[in-house]
Batch of 2 targets.
Target 1
Amino acid sequence: MRNLISSGLKRLKRQDSKYPQGDKSATVIAVATVKGGVGKTTSTINIAAALASTHQKRVLLIDLDAQGHCSTSLSALVPDAPVYTPISEVLLADDQKQVLDSAVSTSYPNLDITPADSSLAEAEGLISQKIGKEMLLRDALAITRTHYDVILIDCPPNKGNLTLNALLAADYVLIPTDLSPLAVQGADELIDAVLTVNERLHHKLDVLGVVLTRVDGRNVSLNDEIRKQIKDAWGDYVLSSEIGVNTQLSQAQHEGQPIFAFAPKSRGAAHYSALAQEIYNRIFV
Ligand SMILES: Nc1ncnc2c1ncn2[C@@H]1O[C@H](COP(=O)(O)OP(=O)(O)OP(=O)(O)O)[C@@H](O)[C@H]1O
Ligand SMILES: [Mg+2]
């Protein structure tokens, strides 16, 4: 006869995690907004790289977007056939798994990444069926965060279950926006979601900042008008470092490298270096 009884009760005698507790306590940053294509992934990978190299922090980059753009953007640094458990499996597992199961080392100093996982698209829906559906990532980071100084999460461009999990797992949210009306509305919507998460789910997520990305120096008057609105509304939450349009940033992504490895003297490298320094100061100083 087929076995009728699940092994559930064994979980009462929970095995110790296969990972030892580390001696760190990571600051977790979700990089999120509702609008697509505004530079979330570009920002996530380059801030991660700067914190790992210049600031010598041990960094984990979590690619929570089914598009897998973090992984393609750093493909030159990731081993060819890495052994890992896809992050969607970690999130959906009944037994408590850790994001450490998904992490692989890169050839960049101090930088680990969870590789691309196209099953995240399916996971987005399946998460709804789980008890504690908003807390899956937070739980899966409990031990993982003791092994890193900073964990950056690249979110999909929406407010779905994966983004919600990132917000609930994070201490801070970083919101990239370009100076287009739709992107600014997307950032506004995300800020609204942060407030709702804090109120309804009793979380203490802080806005690390809104960062202006893809700033095109040629649209001076429109830029100034939108920038003024943003600063009037969000004040000190607007980071002073802005990221200008720089084709070397997209070329670096195409070559699978952070800008600091591909074109260290470029404007893009200077802008992301200044942004990472500002973020470092807000978190660690
Ligand atoms: N400052 C910049 N200058 C020039 N190109 C940029 C800049 N920032 C991003 N890009 C390019 O714009 C495109 C979108 O950027 P990115 O993938 O980072 O956005 P995203 O918000 O993560 O998008 P998605 O919502 O699809 O995940 C990419 O091709 C990227 O190389
Ligand atoms: Mg992206």
Note: The chain has a mean pLDDT of 94.
Target 2
Amino acid sequence: MTDFVMDSCSVNEKGHLTLQGLDTVELAKEYGTPLMLMDENKIRSICRLYKSSMAESFGQDSVPLFASKALSFKGIYRIMAEEGLGCDAVSPGELYTINASGFDMGKVVFHGNNKTDEDIRYALELGVGRFVVDNTEELEAVNRIASELGKRQKVLLRITPGIDPHTHKAVATGRVDSKFGSAIATGMAESITRAALECKGVELTGFHCHIGSQIFEIQPFVDAASIMMEYISDIKSKTGFIASELNLGGGFGVRYVKEHPHFDYAGAIAELACAMKKIAEGHGIPLPAVMMEPGRSIVAAAGLTLYTVGSVKEIPDMKNYVSIDGGMTDNPRYALYQSQYEAVVANRAAEKAEYVCSIAGRCCESGDLIAENIRLRKPVKGDILAVLVTGAYNYSMASNYNRIPRPPIVMIKDGKPYVAVRRESFEDLVRNDM
Ligand SMILES: Cc1ncc(COP(=O)(O)O)c(C=O)c1O
């Protein structure tokens, strides 16, 4: 098998898996395993695709914001700055990391359904560009603290459009029954909008919605954008307020396995723009400046994780377990969502994959699996296993469970590797212990 779900992967003359032409087995030797490898050129090319597609469809005022939750470390923000993207953050820790990278905080949008007063003050002091205000308690706090600091903070309100896309229920966020935002259907959206318009410490610029993640159909996005445009028109006729900004969130699907479809990002953006322009013309309202918040689609397919195989356990007439030196601590997505992955024995990447097995991590936990019933070339102890498309929501969800240090992130730019995040040490693990 030499056709991989990651298009920057191939096989070299030694039969080894390559990323951007570099031998992954050699990289595993040099940097150790587990190892996260990321293709910086790929990340940059998707950033450019978002930028150009949005500019073409929505105009030059539109901006993609990288969703930090997908992957957060200083180097990723330097890439986003160079590519001209903004960023979204959902916690003071993400804000701190963005600021520490030297990123322009005016291009940051601050999310979260339960920001504390300390979070709000911190973000205001950092000069965050916009808050996405989730609820009335937060609106009151932003208004109060901004007024205390002598500021008038730009704010979008998070609105729940009432869309139920086909995705895992843990990553669906646009239904009326959601912990996020104010629903149009319940009247809460209108009442928080009216309240925001009365606030002296707040400048309402528009609205935000996000219907979920890993969604492959375009229609739910078009429906959500259309509902938001109708809402903007309705609010204009009721209050006179004309939203100048609309943030459509993230959520475009990523191909993790060959059974997943290819998602046409540029095509989806064009369809969204077409639907929104029709509504804007029909209601006589201007098209607001559009923001989007892609996370997964920018970094997922740029990353793979390398592990060393330990044991191969065969339970007759039942199951084969291939144990690796990482697991749910660097990739909890199978344990959380039963996410599918493609895996390859990197040192025998050209051989036929006929051995059906489950990939087990090293944690003291039966649920510590990366994949079940996957096909590999039969591995043996010492082989290097590559799990593909691990660039999003892996490192950012990684933990130190069982006191396992997090792996490093090695970026590859123009065929040259460099350490972007170093491997955690045992000293790192006890740093806060008294
Ligand atoms: C508010 C918000 N914006 C953006 C994203 C990024 O979504 P994705 O990584 O699917 O593009 C998320 C993720 O769920 C989110 O909650």
Note: The longest strand covers residues 303-315.
